[in-house]
C-alpha cells in the first residue's frame, strides 16, 4: 500500500512541479522544448507551455523524492522523465490534431503521463502489472477531478 502511495505521489510531483515552478519563476527560464519550431502542418511541435524548466523540475523533483523514500536516484529521474515525455507526446498529438495548447482531450491529457512511468515501475521494482496500471488510471482520474479545483484556486492556468 505504501509503495502505491509513493508512486502516486511521484506522479503528482512529476506533473505538479512544472506548474509550481512556472508560478514561482514566471517567464524566467521558460525556454520551449520545441525551440519554437513548427511541424510540416504549420503548427507548433509542442507549444510554448512545454519548457525545459518544467522537464528539469519534474524530473529533479522525482529524483529527490525517490532518494528520500529509498528508491534509486536513477529510477526517480527516469520516472519523472517518462511522465513528462508522456505529457510531451500528448501535446505533440494534440497539435497534430489541430487542438490548441489549452484544449481538453480527455484521456490523452492524462494517460500517457501516468502510464509510461508506471510501466517503468512495473519493470524496475517489480510491481504487478495490474497494480501499476491501476495506479496510473487512478492518477489520471484524480487529475480530471482535481485540475478544475486547482484552476479555481489559481494554481493552474487551465482547468484541465
UniProtKB/TrEMBL annotation:
E.C. number: 2.7.7.67
InterPro entries: CarS
Pfam families: CarS-like
GO molecular function, one term: CDP-2,3-bis-(O-geranylgeranyl)-sn-glycerol synthase activity
Lineage: superkingdom: Bacteria
Transmembrane parts of this sequence: 131-151
Keywords noted in UniProt: Membrane, Nucleotidyltransferase, Transferase, Transmembrane, Transmembrane helix
Residue ranges of coiled coil: none
Descriptive protein name: CDP-2,3-bis-(O-geranylgeranyl)-sn-glycerol synthase
Organism: Marinobacter oulmenensis
